[in-house]
Amino acid sequence: MAELTIEAESFTYLQNRGTTGVSYATIHDAASGNQIGTDSENARELGQIYIPGAGQDLYRVFRFGLKFDCSALPAIFTITAAKIQLYAHSDNSSVDFEVTVVNGDDLDFPGVIADYGELLDEVTSYGAWDTVNWPGAASYIDINLNSTGIALIVDGVVKFGLRSSRDIAKTTPTTLEYGYFSPLSSPPKLVLTYSFAPTVTQQKPSNIQATVATGHGNITSVGDGTVSQHGHCWNRTGTPTTSDSKTELGAASAVGAFTSDMTDLQSGQRYYVRSYVTNEAGTAYSSTTWSFIAGGGGRHIALSG
User: Fold this and answer.
1) Whether residue 179 is found in the same domain as residue 201
2) Which of 38, 42, 145, 227 would be 82's cystine partner, CB 3.0–4.6 Å?
3) Residues 135 and 263 occupy one common structural domain
4) CA Rg, the chain, in Å?
5) Residues 250, 225: contact at Cβ < 8 Å?
């Protein structure tokens, strides 16, 4: 397995701060917040607050947005584990809650105050960490993503939101229930454990006869795992896959060239062939497809794609 650690490309702090006499429901359900912060902040709150008293009877709700650039992942990969790391600065909560990861696809980066409301309907947990486990000294904590959260990760931009579980449940706070997290000196991270597919190339076919031709390929990387199958696939329409006619040469433990015979061809028909290789992460194909005519005297054309 391979591991990739990605620092957050952008961080947004979203707050809706009430004034005296404004209800919790009004603050919680607002379409926009009234304060926004960025990754230039040293520490920011996540959770909720109720401040009682003369001239201080007010509510506040704090949410986060995170953006990661996952383009360093290979073209074909399977994530087996993922976690978001946050630097837990200080616990100012009298009530434990879960820091909950939610979908952040609708968030803007740089953030806007409307992002506060964009997270309101995001209530499905992609992973959570309970503040009862707050570390004794400031340090990174791990929020392990579940299968729903892992499924959101692509080899490109990935966006998450962070909310308190009590915010998601719309539980009216009666005291302080928030923690400080540091986005500046110790930025949020996304840590991925994954397997990746092998790579293969395709060379021009040879021995082109009326009903048979020989394919040539080369495994250039076995990927991260065990190559369980490799060979050639071909059809008469273009961009062949293993759902079409194919050879199966079995497992491979190392890089290297291979050949296999394409059989049962029809003389005079044009065929398209490319190499393939499979491991636990999936099936990869050669970037080049060769075209030839069965029985056509050895004429062939290299096609990209």
Assistant:
1) no
2) 145
3) no
4) 27
5) no
